[in-house]
Structure formats: C-alpha cells, structure tokens
Amino acid sequence: MRMWCQSCREEYKEKDAGTCKECYEEASETEEELKREIEDLKAKVSFLRLCPPVDPHLPNTNADLLLYGVSESHEEAKSTLTPAVPAHRAVLISRSPVFKAMLETEMEENKSGMIKIYDVSYEVLRSFVKYLYTAEVLLDEQMACDLLILAEKYQVKHLKSFCEKFMTSKVNNENAIASYAFAHQHHAKQLIEAALSSIIENISTLTEREEFKELLERDPRLVVEIYEAYLTRQVNTAEK
Amino acid sequence: MRMWCQSCREEYKEKDAGTCKECYEEASETEEELKREIEDLKAKVSFLRLCPPVDPHLPNTNADLLLYGVSESHEEAKSTLTPAVPAHRAVLISRSPVFKAMLETEMEENKSGMIKIYDVSYEVLRSFVKYLYTAEVLLDEQMACDLLILAEKYQVKHLKSFCEKFMTSKVNNENAIASYAFAHQHHAKQLIEAALSSIIENISTLTEREEFKELLERDPRLVVEIYEAYLTRQVNTAEK
After folding, report:
1. How many Å lie between the alpha carbon of A6 and the closest alpha carbon of chain B?
2. Could you read off the pLDDT of A33-45 as tens digits, one per residue?
3. DSSP state of A82
4. Which are the contacts of A163, defined by CB distance < 8 A and separation ≥ 6?
5. What is the ipTM score, two decimals?
6. Nearest Cβ partner of A45 from B4, B41, B63?
C-alpha cells in the first residue's frame, strides 16, 4: 500500500508522515470555521465603520465639532491654523479617553466646539480623524510616525499599535537608531525590540555613525541599554 | 519504521494516512495566521463600537435625535408613545439608507429630531439602537423576529442577516410552518430554505395541523411551493 497526502495529493514515505486521517479532517474543518469567523468579523467591521465628515462645507454632516492643526511660528510670534476638520463629539468620546475627558467636562473645547491640536499638519489631522471613524488609513513612514504621536497623545491605543506594527515592519540598518530613539520617546515596546535587534546585529558599523554619537549625547541611558542588550545576547549565544 | 501523527501524537497505519509532513506544517502555519487575523479583526470591532446613549437622562450624550415606539390602540382611537431612546444622526445615517434619506432631506423627522416607529416596544427599540452602535444584541426567538422586521424596514442588512441566522438555527418541527410563513413575508431566503427542509421532512404530520390549513387559506401559493419542493426532493431521491 502506498500513502497519498490528502492535501497535496502526492505520494510520500513513512518518514515524511504528517498527520493521520482523522486529524487531517479535523484540521480542514477548523480552517473552514476560522475562515467563516473571519468573514463574519469583516462584515461586522464594515457595518461598524462610520462615514467621516471630512469636508466641512458638505451639508448634512451634523458634525458638532471642528478640529484645527496649529503651527507656531516663533519668528513672527504668531500661530497659524490649518483648515478645519469636522467631527462628531460622540465618535471622539468613544475612541479616546482624552477627548472624553475634554468633551464631558466644562473645558474650553466643550463650550466652543473647537479643538486645537499643536504641531500637526492638515493632512495628518484628516487621517487621524478618518481613522477614528473607519479604523483605516494609508500609511507611509512619515505618516505612521506622525499618527503614532497623535495616537499616544489622545490615547487611541488601536491606532498607536497599528502605526507601531507598520514601523516595526520597516526597521532596517539605516533607520534602526532613529527608530530606537523614537520608540523610546513614545513608549512603543514592540518597536524598541525590533530596532534594538537590528542595532545589535550591526553594532560595529552603527556605533561609528553620527546619529549614534548624537544619541549618546542626548540620552546616554539609551546607549547603555543597547550595550547591555548586546552583552546579554553574546552571553546567551556563548551558552548555546 | 512506524508512523506517528504529528498532531495527536498517536501511531497510525498506512490506510489512515492524512497528510505528508510538509502539508501538515503548512496547515499549522495557516491556522496560526488565521487566528492572528481573527485577533486583529476582533480588536478592530471593539475599537469601532460606539457607546450607545441609551438613557436620555444622562448628561453629555450629545444625542441629537429621539426615537419613540408608537402603539396604536384602535379601541380608544389614540396612540401611545414609549419612552424616548436617544441616538445620533451620524450613526443612524451610516447604518441605514432609510434613516439617511429621512435625515438628509427636509422631512419632518429631520426638522423635529424625533423619529416615531410604529408597532415596536421600548425594549425592541432599545435593542435596535444598541445594535446600530455596537453590532451586538442578546437574542431570543421573539426578539430576533421583532428585530428582523425592524432591520428589513430600515434596510440594516447586517442586523437582518444576524437575526435570520439565529432564527434559522432555531427551526424545528414545531415552528417550521410559522417560520416559513414569516420568512416569506420578510424575504429571508436562508430561513425559507431551512423551514422548507424541516416541513418536507415531516410533511405527513404537518399537513394535518391547523396552522397548515390557515396557511393554505391565507396564501395558497406558499403551500404550492411546499408541495413542489416535496415532489422535487422525491424525484431526486428516486434518481439516486
């Protein structure tokens, strides 16, 4: 008797045995079930998405808040506002404990219906609001960086972790030190780990770089952490 | 050499072979990936859920609409309103094309901020609104029935299919005829199929029932459909 794999239909030898028939069938069923669950969850996500009122000039958005990005110019000692991004109190309150506190108390923003956010561009602010409505945003490295900062400020955990995952997937030799410093500043553990691994792998070349010297100047504790991680890894490798 | 199943760890014979090693490993990886996707989607669902402003007496809900259930009493020729269920225009507009049309035009409801829904109890209305905010509701058979009707009226497809699935899972000999008539009335295909199957299986006893005779009186075409399905099944069985 010869054995045929029920999955790829090819003949195989005893030493290449994977599972028995029963477990194969069970696994196929499990996979089907998981796929059905995914379909259900996707339908739920698309049901729960809200249409963001991105354009303040559209009628009937019923938006009861306006958000503005503010950039301060020190030279001219004045600040400039981005165009307004409309939003709904109910949505912002649901998504962020910071907005919740701001909009459920007698704070200035609650009374005026205007929220000013410093050092953020119109584009980033729009993407931020869009994410609060849809849990969707198109990221590049700069946008991920900017949105992570906003997400941390307003405690929008889901967005922060979304940006952090994206940045983690982009860590390389070139940006490892910058990513490491950024991740520390914004308490992004997963990104710290990824950047640290990348730094340790290339430690001999990276320590020669200008950025590394700047990091040492600015925050020597971070450099200590790098060396400690490097030494721990050496010990672990030696033990194996 | 003996073969051990990599999944259940038990020894098996050639004829009980399931998969080769490679396919087993691939399947495990796929399963892990699917599970991760499920986790991500669950987090997205919980991020996108909104807190429904169920109690109109709570401050700071920012609700800009009030929904009322209306029941008409023919005897006393007057109608009574349920307590108000508060809601946000932005949410209702996102979830239902009917509410969207109502609230984006110069209709009475838009101006007054009051929506009256006929023949619905306070409990059902609350559950309906809760679902629009959270995609969650606790169903029993009556609630599924009532919410399906509302979901059809306001074209909330996701809720309709949620209720239909629930009702389909509850079809049995006792409720098959009633389910069948209900499903036809509300264009619930999946439920029609399930009820029809159940009726056909027990056709000899069910045709004797009072309900069946009532159905024949009320809508003879539905009874024709039952007999046609029964005959088709008989022919198919005979051919096999």
Report:
1. 5
2. 999 999 999 999 9
3. P
4. A139, A144, A145, A147, A148, A151
5. 0.87
6. B41
